[in-house]
TrEMBL record:
InterPro entries: Pept_tRNA_hydro (IPR001328), Pept_tRNA_hydro_CS (IPR018171), Pept_tRNA_hydro_sf (IPR036416). This is peptidyl-tRNA hydrolase. PROSITE patterns: PEPT_TRNA_HYDROL_2. Pfam families: Pept_tRNA_hydro. Its EC number is 3.1.1.29. It comes from the Eukaryota. Transmembrane segments: none annotated. It comes from Sander lucioperca (Pike-perch).
Length: 226
């Protein structure tokens, strides 16, 4: 990330990261999902689902079933988990909201991006490869680039400093606010519009502007497995 079988809209939110490394910059997407689960009062409901290779919570925002997914695979193959969940529950890729770290934004900035390239982020690239589309919207959470001669890999796999953690607290609050706003918009859009075809939807989502707030891709790697 799943859902009970029902006719209500389903909105999946996926926190990309590395299992067992939840406190690192690269896994900030998982931290955002943890904060979202806490805000929804369901933080104790994470359950492992071997069929999607991840941990899942199903909750509700207004009339929408919200599915939270934390893949239990390494970042560069997170897309395997996301694709399994999409297949199992009949989710369209353009309805899957990915939450991930963003090197090219400073800590304190969060951005909604409506589809498009992975921009070098391994987890997003894996999702694009495995879902065979780049239509997925993303919440990009800034972590900033390393200072001095610190290698990028060491930076993203490192933990937030004590000073950064103070900023991170407000980032998590703002990220959850923005996610809930997006989910509410999706609910109203699903009520008022017929679903768009994946083929026609790709160009449309790429033309939308990024939405930025004050309050995130990473290093290159081989293509992921699907």
């Amino acid at each position: 990330t799943m859902f009970a079988v029902c006719q209500q809209p389903k909105s999946p939110v996926v926190g990309l990261g590395n299992p067992g490394m939840e406190g690192t910059r690269h896994s900030v997407g998982m931290a955002v999902l943890g904060a979202l689960a806490a805000r929804l009062g369901v933080a104790d409901r994470w359950r492992g689902d071997k069929h999607v290779s991840g941990e899942v919570i199903v909750s509700e925002v207004q009339q929408t079933h919200v599915v939270l997914l934390r893949p239990r695979l390494l970042m560069n193959v997170n897309g395997v988990s996301v694709a399994k969940a999409a297949g199992k529950y009949g989710i369209r890729p353009e309805d899957i909201l990915l939450v991930h770290d963003e090197l090219d934004k400073p800590l304190g900035k969060i951005v909604i991006k409506h589809g498009g390239s992975a921009r070098g982020h391994n987890g997003v690239r894996s999702c694009v490869d495995c879902l065979q589309t780049d239509a997925m919207p993303r919440l990009r959470v800034g972590i900033g680039r390393p200072t001095g001669k610190t290698p990028v890999e060491r930076h993203v796999l490192g933990r937030f400093s004590s000073e950064e953690k103070k900023v991170l607290e407000s980032v998590l609050v703002q990220s959850v606010d923005l996610l809930l706003s997006q989910l509410s918009q999706e609910d109203s859009q699903q009520d008022s519009q017929p679903p768009s075809s994946p083929a026609g939807g790709r160009q449309a989502v790429q033309k939308r502007k990024e939405t930025e707030r004050s309050s995130s891709p990473a290093e290159n790697s081989p293509a992921s497995q699907c």
